[in-house]
Amino acid sequence: MPDLVDAGRLGLGIAFGVAVLQLLLGLAGAVRRTPELSRGAANAASVQAALLTVVAAGLAAGFLARDFSIQFVADHSSSAMPTGLTIAALWGGQEGSLLFWTWSMSLFAAVATRRMLTADGVVGPHGIVVLSGLQLFFLGVLVFTSSPFARLVAAPAEGRGLNPLLWDSGMQIHPPMLLSGYMSFGIPFAFAAGLLLAGRVTQPWLREMRNWMLLAWAIQSAGLLLGAWWAYRVLGWGGYWGWDPVENVALLPWLVATAYLHSALAQERRGQLRAWAIGLVLVTYALAIFGTFVVRSGILSSVHNFALSDVGPIFFVFVGALLILSAALFIYRLPLIRSDEPITDVASKEAGFLINNLLMLAIAAATFWGTVFPMVTEIVQGARIAVGPPFYTQVNVPLLVATLGLLAIWPLLAWRRTSLGAAWRATSWPIATLALVSVLLAVLGMRDGLPIIAIGLTAAVAVGVALEYVRSVRAGLARRRQATTGPYPLMVGNRRRLGSYLVHLGVAILALGIIASAAFSQETAASVERGEAVSLGPYDVVFQGLRSSVQPGLNTVVAEVDVLRDGAVIDRLSPSRRIHAGWENQPTADVAVSTTLPHLDDVYVLLSSWDGSGASATIRLLVNPLVVLLWIGGIVYFVGILVIAWPVERREAAAIPGVASQPAAS
Amino acid sequence: MNRHRAILLLGLLAAVVLVLPVRAADEPDLPTRKRMWSIAERLDCPVCQGQSVRESNAQLAAQMREIILIKLQAGESEQQIMDFFADRYGPGVLREPPREGLALGVWIGPVVIVGLGILLLGWALARGRRPAVAAATGDLQAYERQVDDLRRARRDSPPSP
User: Fold this and answer.
1) Residues forming beta bridges with residue A621, ordered by sequence position
2) Which of A161, A170, A531, A562 has the greatest number of beta carbons closer than 10 A?
3) B126 CB near a chain A CB, below 8 Å?
4) Alpha-carbon distance A360 to A611, whole Å?
5) Of A5-14, A574-583, A587-596, which one has max mean pLDDT?
6) What's A593's domain CATH number?
């Protein structure tokens, strides 16, 4: 009798067939310049998306039905798991996460192939070929080396369950975000490679490529932030970023994509940096695949070793082939795509983009170097040295502070060239803010130079953004007074530009949270009897006793603690430990965090250990100032991206007589 | 108008400054403990993947923190303690790569990268300045050539909105 395993295999088999057909149609369409064939390939992409949706739903159904005859289900779930988590177990291992990747890529590709054909009838078919090739590769790996539909001949009565560290609501959102992020860098890559293959540069194509990169970059940003949030709440070490190899490789494509998004602006507005920007798209995807390779192969020691598998070598070959082919194609087409429009003045917006690129790429290169260096020493010396956070902070923090400085000044400058006087008028407030805040901090007793300047810079960025918005509102008011008909927008200005400023503000808020928590975090740990307190600064955490709850397959020990500030109770927290059946040696922490107002300190309480009678426990207490700004800054950042990407009808302003020309903001 | 702007900005500044987390100096009776955490931060927990002795909640990490504290109280220097753990668990427990031997490479790499990047940036900006230089030196032919180049480049490049 056919069952889910058979159906899943059949579905994947058909999808593979469709993918082959899609690539052949795409190739024929590009070579013979027949639009019908290319449209056929786009249709095949839609069919593939539909098929893979059914297959993914089938695996999810297998999880929900707790069909332990499917090996992947038996290995990554158990009947004790709640429903939401059971579905999330789909990406709890190599095979399932590859299916998720391939499936989400097919959804993106179904849309992207169509947009390629409308963006440019000549380049489009070439882009479709590249995208179809990428899809076929992933589907091939899925079908031939790591199918999630392997059958267990003797189905066990109970599954092994998920690693307890993943047993958390964050599991439902962080991994799919990062997988989608890695995956979606493939779409702009297909645009870039298609352009190189076709040997033709057009603005609609470049714009479409930029939009897809913006989407991929936003998804990756969300994945990174959610990872930080999850680490902070679940891993229980009081931090949110550990310069762990897997974190680093996820950061790399984000950094290079950030560089691209800025140089793409110079490309769009002034025709500068065109070849450079296209090169960055290629590098971004190579780094995304490199990241996947690192995560999957486990060649680097990391907290993320959940999804180890033997597909590492395949990805290694893939990333090598990608690099060689795209480098060859890039060099071959360089005379065609390069733009000779030079950047003439260091006091200009476009010079700011260049400096941004320098900083982003330097951070990326240093991080890459530190991440792979242990492998280098292992090969050369046979012994692996550790490259840990002290390296990354010493190398990257100065670069990040320089980035803040760039962020405070250059966005306020004009295109092309800003005279010294105009530059001073545009930036005097942020510079004054920097000076004032730094002096104040020094007077208030801060002694470390770098954090002082960094905090001053975040304030300067905020002031610069506020100024831009004040200008925009003022222009809107002026227009409202003048206009007799038509809409009366409150703000006047380029929506994308205003959105970018919001993203910058989000980054500044985030940076303030990072600087403050890194510079002022305090921690202690103590064994206490019931009624005793662990104290740190103005805070006392009083241990009020333990309680435990027993569910099938899961024991939970909860400590009740009162949080006091200056002697007054401000909160009650329940840090706990979960002990899962089958994972007894790995009791998982549920950290309890209380964010105090108005001080914005995170009081972070962790139950380390306890004695059997429940009379005493070891409590670990951290006071992390301003960590909450990371999440607030993250929200501002995404609001900014929404403002940038929000679809509106183009150029409605031009219809209003007399107000079509706006004063150019300096 | 300018005064409004000043008031607005001062208000904003005040808000920013009020939020800033300026902490009093560390409690004087805890310097040893403080040093313990700082050393623990620079040691890798040998049994956990990718966590430091400070961060880890593993038994071994707790014991290592205890050992650090005892050794500090016995008057040992930070270097001696680091060496002790490096002897015991191998050089892989040191999270900060030493600035000597092969490991020096990891420190030199970023310096080289940033240096090259700055050179490249300077070159890109200098390239853009050349027309002005030619005009200033009075070499009319070179200047005209460059103007022609620029014109051609402008024609080839797509119109900017």
Assistant:
1) A524, A605
2) A161
3) no
4) 49
5) A5-14
6) 2.60.98
In this complex, which of A244, A462, A620 lies closest to B16 when CB atoms are compared? A462
Domain ranges of chain B: 31-96, 102-152
Residues sharing a CB contact under 8 Å with residue A139, sequence separation 6 or more, in sequence order: A12, A15, A16, A19, A102
Domain interval for residue A543: 522-628
Indicate whether A606 belongs to any domain. yes
Q: Who wins on pLDDT, A419 or A666?
A: A419
Residue of B nearest to A577 (CA): B57
Q: Which residue of B has its CA nearest to A344?
A: B128
Q: Which two tokens stand for residue A33?
A: 């310049």
Q: Which of B89, B81, B48 is nearest to B65 (CA)?
A: B81
Contact assignment for B95 to A390 by CB distance below 8 Å: yes
Residues A531, A596 share a domain = yes
Mean model confidence pLDDT for chain B: 75
CB contact (8 A) between residue A459 and residue B13: yes
Q: What is the CATH number of domain B31-96?
A: 1.10.8.640
Q: B64, B101 in Cβ contact below 8 A?
A: no
CB within 8 Å: B160 and A351 = no
pLDDT value of position B15: 58
Among candidate residues A500, A519, A538, the one where a domain is terminated: A519
- DSSP letter string, B39-104: HHHTBB-TTSTT-BTTT--SHHHHHHHHHHHHHHHTT--HHHHHHHHHHHH-GGGBSSPPSSGGGH
Please state, in angstroms and rounded to a whole number, the distance separating the CA atoms of residues A131 and A186. 8
Q: Is pLDDT of A24 > 70?
A: yes
**Last residue within a domain, chosen from A460, A495, A519:** A519
**Token couple for A622:** 């951290």
Chain A interface includes B57 (CB < 8 A): yes
The interface predicted TM-score of the complex, written ipTM, equals 0.81
- When pLDDT is averaged across residues A563-579 and rounded to a whole number, the result is 91
Task: Answer whether A16's CB lies under 8 Å from A80's CB.
Answer: no
Helix (H) or strand (E) holding A232: none
Chain A: closest CA distance from residue B155 (Å): 10
Number of H helices, E strands in chain A: 18, 10
> Exposure of A397 by Cβ count < 10 A (0-12 exposed, 13-18 middle, 19+ buried)?
middle
Question: Helix, strand or coil for residue A173?
Answer: coil
The total number of structural domains that make up chain A: 2
Q: What pLDDT is stored for residue A598 in this prediction?
A: 86
